[in-house]
From TrEMBL:
Cross-referenced InterPro entries: EamA_dom, EmrE-like
Keyword Isomerase among record annotations: no
Any Pfam family matching the protein: EamA
Entry GO terms, CC: membrane
Alphabetical UniProt keywords: Membrane, Transmembrane, Transmembrane helix
Domain of life: Bacteria
This protein's name: Permease of the drug/metabolite transporter (DMT) superfamily
Organism: Pricia antarctica
Length: 282
């Protein structure tokens, strides 16, 4: 049990480096960064891709490929978010994804909506409003662009979570990681032609980024999930928000505004309790 808790906690803390690595590679095109994020896991898990004893393209693989395609959009928006706004804003807004999972489940799967659920959704909405309230809307405002991308990334991630969850009993964890990255790995190949000035150090960071976030993080999380209840594992992952904000503050000297702190607390509290309720029902 303790090892599983430590594994998920470490997973969350490592995931908090996402923003730092993306910011470091921001001189590369967003598509090129996305290529490393998706192709590196595919290369490391190539034996899974070509396994004859446990073939990948079985079951409802078309549905899994649809989720993989949606994940292309999600990853691109996620990178845009971290490039154009602060790490604090991006990670706080992205962690609204459990709220959208709950909304989609309520609307499309006709799950009953209780007063407590309405209160949590209102709390999350208030958090989003507070986070945005000190920003001046403009199509030329990069901060707003990044924050909008973070919310859209959260929405698309919620869709993929529901799809992967619905088919998870038919695939092992490595196969799910493959599907998460499969379409993106090939879609983002053309963006390699837009990195002629990239240094070897940046390319090395790109490979490291894809391995650390695409392989290590998911391996640690799935290991912990094997021995922990989903509610505990999901709750521990909120350490990523703290890790990301602290690293951004101390390493990149990013300022954490009062709006981000207040809005972030409202969003995270709402997401936490929604995740906990869903895990208990599951």
């Amino acid at each position: 049990m303790k090892k599983a808790i430590y594994a998920v906690a470490l997973c969350a803390l490592i995931a908090g480096t996402n923003g730092l690595l993306i910011k470091y590679m921001s001189t590369l095109s967003t598509g090129a960064i996305a290529f490393f994020r998706t192709m590196v896991p595919i290369l490391f898990l190539a034996p899974v891709l070509f396994s004859k004893s446990n073939p990948l393209f079985t079951g409802n693989y078309k549905k899994m490929l649809l989720a993989s395609t949606i994940n292309v959009v999600r990853i691109y928006l996620y990178l845009v978010a971290f490039i154009f706004t602060s790490i604090g804003n991006a990670v706080v807004l992205f962690y609204s994804w459990p709220i959208f999972v709950f909304i989609f489940e309520t609307v499309y799967f006709k799950k009953p909506l209780k007063r407590s659920h309405v209160a949590l959704l209102f709390l999350a909405f208030t958090g989003l409003v507070v986070t945005y309230s000190n920003k001046t809307f403009s199509f030329g405002n990069e901060d707003i662009l990044g924050m909008v991308a973070a919310v859209l990334s959260a929405i698309t991630y919620a869709v993929t979570v529901l799809i992967f969850k619905s088919e998870s009993q038919h695939y092992n964890k490595e196969q799910i990681i493959i599907y998460q990255n499969l379409v993106g790995a090939f879609f983002f190949i053309p963006f390699l032609f837009f990195i002629p000035d990239a240094s070897l150090e940046q390319l090395g960071v790109g490979v490291f980024y894809g391995f650390l976030i695409g392989i290590v993080v998911f391996k640690l999380f799935f290991y912990g999930l094997k021995y922990l209840e989903a509610s505990i594992a999901s709750s521990l992952m909120y350490l990523e928000v703290v890790s990301a904000i602290v690293l951004g503050y101390f390493i990149l000297d990013e300022k954490v505004t009062l709006n981000t702190l207040i809005g972030g607390v409202l969003i995270i509290v709402s997401s936490y309790f929604i995740t906990k309720r869903n895990a208990k029902k599951g």
